[in-house]
Design brief:
Elements lengths: L3 E4 L32 E4 L2 H5 L7 E2 L5 E6 L11 E5 L8 E5 L14 E5 L4 E5 L2 E10 L2 E5 L6 H4 E3 L10 E2 L13 E9 L15 E7 L4 E6 L14 E11 L2 E5 L6 E5 L14 E7 L9 E6 L5 E2 L4 E5 L8 E4 L4 E2 L4 E5 L2 H8 L5 E2 L13 E5 L5 E5 L17 E4 L15 E5 L7 E2 L14
Parallel strand pairs: 12-13, 15-17, 25-26, 30-31
Antiparallel strand pairs: 1-2, 3-8, 4-5, 4-7, 5-6, 7-11, 8-9, 9-10, 13-14, 13-16, 14-15, 16-17, 16-18, 19-20, 19-29, 20-25, 21-24, 22-23, 22-27, 27-28, 29-30
């Protein structure tokens, strides 16, 4: 690994070596005198340090130093025995945290303070997706990063004699958050707390508590609060605004941690409710299948007659079995998008469907679902607002012997039909079955040759 040399300023604080883990509550506490000297020493970047970690906690043996700028503060009690820092005053490329046994650390490490950390004999590890350095503890034979003992903190963490000119938070949106921003100071605009939490305090007393931000596009982000913080009992604001805080992460979930309530600037009206659900009569039922030779090859096909993809958020497909006037089963289509001039094929038996037709269905559902009709049921496509967009059959009428029976056969929409119809119209369909009643075609259909899932 290539190292660079850099000047650093060492701090000699004799009086601090006498301090134990007790609290320093005196607001008039005089900061220790700084004694500065210059010397050449090997430095390493935060990213280079992280590269040393390979699946297990490691002790650093080299005389290396990393430097950074403090992003966290325990003054309001929302951080405890931890110091977060980033590698640059602005536009950082990475951050890290060091764990130690030091309360009221803000008396020594102010936000924006330039620090140097001697790495030799410290431990580097990773927990729930987050890198950290510090001391060590062992549990069941496994080493993990723990708190650096109070007596050696100032042997490792040195203060620069440079004036503290502060740091600048990185302006970012929720969707732009990434791993390199962890431990760094970020600022996100247009956030508000979710409506369900507006009457709640920031945290449950004495418990770490998650609250939830949402932006005006319905993107969510967790705010992590300590139940011991000074603002624990304050009620969550019902406004919208910007949030500045240290970015953290727990496994795959990004989280923000504020230093105090000054990190919230909530003075705007809340976002208008985002309506990202829509209706369109250009989505229609295009084929229903009940093969005579294989009930496992049944399916329902939907078609998007427009040239653009359409989200099916809030849409559903329902079945009224035989003459029932209440819904017998439902398929929620919300997680799907139907491509322009494309199809969604729904199967009650995905494995059999793929074996028969040589391709997997878009949606696999269970037996007795809307896709598992034996040909005499009524199938309805419902939009997010509860409206019938398209229908096959007549609700309350068993299809047997009618113009909407496709038992042992197939109901396929005629090619010229490009709009859904909330009223069943038999002339829009070509229907094959084993009876030929009421203008249908008496010609049972066999899979796969008589069916065309995914095409018209």
């Amino acid at each position: 690994m290539k190292l660079k040399t850099n000047h650093f300023v060492s701090l000699i604080v004799v009086s601090l070596l006498l301090i134990t883990a007790g609290c320093l509550k005196d607001s008039d506490f005089e900061e220790p005198e700084l004694f500065c000297s210059h010397e050449n020493i090997g430095t390493i970047s935060i990213s280079q340090l992280k590269d040393l970690y390979i699946d297990q906690t490691v002790q650093i043996q080299e005389d290396w130093i990393i430097e950074g700028y403090v992003t966290s503060s325990d003054k309001a009690g929302n951080f405890f025995n931890v110091l977060h820092f980033q590698d640059k005053k602005s536009n950082p490329t990475g951050g890290l945290q060091i764990e130690f046994e030091l309360r009221d650390s803000h008396l020594f490490f102010n936000i924006g303070q330039h620090i140097f950390i001697k790495l030799k004999n410290l431990y580097l590890g990773k927990s729930k997706g987050v890198f950290k350095i510090g001391g060590v503890f062992t549990s069941f034979g496994n080493r993990s990063v723990g708190r650096l003992p109070n007596r050696v903190i100032f042997d490792h963490i040195l203060l620069s004699c440079d004036s503290n000119t502060g740091i600048k938070a990185t302006a970012v949106s929720i969707t732009e958050l990434n791993e390199t921003m962890i431990h760094t100071l970020v600022k996100i605009d247009d956030l508000e707390f979710i409506e369900e939490e507006l009457d709640e305090p920031f945290a449950v007393i004495r418990k770490e508590t998650k609250r939830n931000f949402v932006d005006c596009n319905d993107n969510q982000l967790v705010l992590l609060n300590s139940g011991f913080s000074d603002f624990q009992s304050n009620l969550i604001p019902d406004k919208r605004g910007s949030v500045t805080g240290v970015l953290s992460k727990e496994n795959s979930e990004f989280q923000m941690i504020i230093r105090d309530l000054d990190d919230l600037e909530f003075n705007l009206e809340r976002c208008e409710d985002l309506v990202d659900e829509f209706t369109s009569d250009s989505i229609l039922i295009s084929e229903l299948a009940d093969p005579d030779n294989n009930a496992g090859a049944r399916f329902v096909e939907l078609y998007n007659a427009t040239e653009v993809p359409l989200s099916l958020k809030g849409w559903s497909l329902v079945r009224y079995t035989n003459e029932n006037t209440t819904v017998s089963s439902t398929v929620d289509l919300s997680d799907n998008t139907i491509e322009g001039e494309g199809f969604i094929v729904i199967s009650p038996n995905p494995m059999e469907f793929e074996a028969v037709y040589g391709m997997p269905p878009d949606i696999g559902v269970g037996t007795n679902s809307p896709a598992d009709s034996n040909g005499d049921d009524n199938i309805v496509l419902i939009d997010p607002f509860g409206n019938i967009v398209d229908i096959f059959g007549v609700i309350g009428e068993d299809g047997s012997g009618t113009n909407h029976e496709f038992e042992d056969g197939r109901a396929v929409r005629k090619l010229e039909i490009l709009k859904g119809n909330p009223i069943y119209t038999a002339s829009e369909w070509q229907i094959f079955n084993d009876t030929g009643a009421s203008g249908t075609i008496n010609l049972p259909q066999n899979a796969p040759e008589d069916f065309s899932p995914g095409s018209r």
